[in-house]
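Example for tutorial group B:
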């Protein structure tokens, strides 16, 4: 199939990086990016911790491990070339108790198998050299873990692709991809958004990815079940109590990483996130509920199977949702000097987490092609870190047989 016209759905990090990769590899292609919001990167790409993950936790040979490590290097190079902040502040994964040590050592082995650079297990003395206020009996130090502003990076890429000839059509909500013999029509509620069909479409719809896939005749599963994560900002007077990133050892009984400390590129210090079911896919204020979004997960059998298996985790997270004090004290196990720190609400992210009918969370990235359409069906953390590598994969591997 000879390809001349390409549409990208979604102007977050993934969509913008895919558009950029097409133009880098095939200058002169007709590329259009459709975005429902009035600005780029209004969802997951700007509602996150800003961490560039090193690839510690992900299954060796999986897409997350592969894309995360490659993506981090590409982001580092891009930020350097564009003069954007990229701070390799480093990260400690800290064990507080002896029972956590086997899990910490397993993470170290996993990271080594993934080829993560500059990682080592250290004791309390070295921990204090890196993070003077941190306590623990052992830690994994990842020196290359970094922080950025994904919002800034997305805006830079948006400007770059437009300079290269791409069209960025903001304020255009896509609800359906209608494939016919002559190509794919990109449609809103009121009809096609372009008079001509596209030869290929890549859907990077994030929180709406399963809905767009279903209306476009793709598979119904996996489904997106949204989980919000609230971050809090520590009193600026105390921000120097943490130099970089401090994480707990993940508990296998819980599906997410747990509350941690994160430095931002502007110097602020965040605690978070918790992880609890969101009452709306785009409920960033936490004050609104969306009955349609709630009905989607309440009617889904997989959600109830997941809930039945994770009741204790839900109760633990609910405490941090209802009590800022509980939230702070959970994090302060690792930095006791911040036990009574004043906190104010920071960014609230919503994770587009894909779930199976079995109630299992989809662990790896899911990229599915059907006909002329490629859907990214699951790209939560480390999705932003991996975005440039994922774009390479889509353009060079998934679409390798097409004549671009």
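The residue assignment follows.
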């Amino acid at each position: 199939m000879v390809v001349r016209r390409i549409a990208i759905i979604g102007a977050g990090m993934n969509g913008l990086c895919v558009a950029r990769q097409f133009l880098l590899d095939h200058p002169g292609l007709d590329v259009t990016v459709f975005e429902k919001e009035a600005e780029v990167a209004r969802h997951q790409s700007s509602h996150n911790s800003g961490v560039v993950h090193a690839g510690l936790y992900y299954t060796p040979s999986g897409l997350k491990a592969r894309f995360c490590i490659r993506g981090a290097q590409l982001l580092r190079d891009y930020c350097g070339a564009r003069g954007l902040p990229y701070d390799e502040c480093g990260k400690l994964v800290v064990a507080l108790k002896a029972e956590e040590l086997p899990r910490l050592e397993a993470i170290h082995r996993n990271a080594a198998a993934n080829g993560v650079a500059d990682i080592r297990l250290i004791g309390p003395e070295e921990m204090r050299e890196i993070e003077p206020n941190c306590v623990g009996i052992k830690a994994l130090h990842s020196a290359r873990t970094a922080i950025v502003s994904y919002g800034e990076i997305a805006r830079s890429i948006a400007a770059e692709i437009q300079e290269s000839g791409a069209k960025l059509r903001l304020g255009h909500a896509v609800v359906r991809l209608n494939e016919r013999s002559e190509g794919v029509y990109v449609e809103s509620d009121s009809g096609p958004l372009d008079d001509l069909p596209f030869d290929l479409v890549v859907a990077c719809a994030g929180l709406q990815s399963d809905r767009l896939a279903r209306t476009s005749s793709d598979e119904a599963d996996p489904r997106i079940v949204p989980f919000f994560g609230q971050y809090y900002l520590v009193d600026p007077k105390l921000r120097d109590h943490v130099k970089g990133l401090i994480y707990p050892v993940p508990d296998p009984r819980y599906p997410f990483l747990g509350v941690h400390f994160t430095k931002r590129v502007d110097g602020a210090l965040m605690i978070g996130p918790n992880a609890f079911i969101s009452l709306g896919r785009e409920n960033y204020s936490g004050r609104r509920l969306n009955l349609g979004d709630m009905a989607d997960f309440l009617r889904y059998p997989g959600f109830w199977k997941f809930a039945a298996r994770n009741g204790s985790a839900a109760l633990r997270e609910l405490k941090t949702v209802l009590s800022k004090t509980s939230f702070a004290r959970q994090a302060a196990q690792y930095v006791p000097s911040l036990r009574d720190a004043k906190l104010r609400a920071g960014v609230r992210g919503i994770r587009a987490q894909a779930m199976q009918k079995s109630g299992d969370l989809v662990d790896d990235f899911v990229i599915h092609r059907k006909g002329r359409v490629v859907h990214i069906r699951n790209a939560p953390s480390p999705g932003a870190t991996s975005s440039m590598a994922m774009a390479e994969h889509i353009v060079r591997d998934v679409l390798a047989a097409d004549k671009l």
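The chain has three domains: 5-46+151-222+363-398, 91-143, 226-356. Compare this with the pattern of hydrophobic and polar residues in the output above.
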